[in-house]
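hey can u check if this looks right to u? its 110 residues, i copy pasted from the old doc so theres a chance i mangled smth
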Amino acid sequence: MDFKEKNCRSCKDRQSCRDVFRSLGQSDAPPVALKAIIAFLLPILIFIAALFIAEKLLKQRIKADSLAMILGFVGALFVTFIYILCVRPFFKKDRTNLSSREDKDEHFGN
């Protein structure tokens, strides 16, 4: 018997907990993990990589370290902004327009 089974047996809410996990496992909703990675984690990684590359390239060409750092930062922001502009249309088509109260009620089943 592992730790989880031991704790579940002594828990007074174990049946409702199982029901919740069972219903989540049978959900028809599309997975969001990939979208979360693309929308949040990848832009940060792209910014860091672009900053690293820009700083390496600019330090060889520009003798003033502060200027190289500023230009590298601006370049990394530009690259990240271009990535966001390229990825944005793929996420826009999944959004629903919930501007009016009737649309919200209908969307949420109220």
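The chain has a mean pLDDT of 79.
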